[in-house]
Amino acid sequence: MIKKDLDLARNWHKLLRQLEQQIGTRPKDMNAVLFLIGVQELGQGTRTFSKEQKQDLMHIAICKVLSLSGFYRLEGLDEEGWPHWKLVKKLPHFDLLEQEKLLKMHVIEYFEGMFDDKETL
Q1: What confidence tens digit (pLDDT) does each residue in 66-117 have?
Q2: Comparing C-alpha atoms, which of 72, 80, 65, 67 is closest to residue 34?
Q3: I want to staple 61 with a disulfide (CB 3.0 to 4.6 A). Which of 34, 55, 81, 106 is the partner?
């Protein structure tokens, strides 16, 4: 278990470094990374978002990365082009640390292959 945690930590820090190279600033935490994923998934480019829209973007990101394990399914887009997701498989009950690990694993998987450096994260 310790080796898995160390590997996850290494891969997470590697991802943060790669994101820093791509966007010019290092994301400070999971929320910042989720925000980036949400903006990417929205597909409307960068712009100023309201506080509520930022929360919606993070929700989009969580649904997207957890869809990689079949927890969510994209239902479609609303009239403004925002994606809507449906929970299709019950999420396991985890404490906060385990939730963060699950998200980190899925975020890393989401970004695999997106960078010029094709090393595995």
Answers
A1: 999 999 999 999 999 999 999 999 998 989 999 999 999 999 999 996 765 4
A2: 65
A3: 34
Q: In degrees, to the nearest 5, what angle opens at C-alpha 66 toward C-alphas 63 and 68? A: 120
**Residue 65 near residue 103 (C-beta atoms within 8 A):** yes
* H helix and E strand count, the chain: 4, 2
pTM for the complete prediction?
A: 0.88
DSSP state of 112: T
Give the residue from 83, 73, 15, 76 showing the smallest Cα distance to 44: 83
State the Cα–Cα distance between residues 63 and 25, nearest whole angstrom. Answer: 25
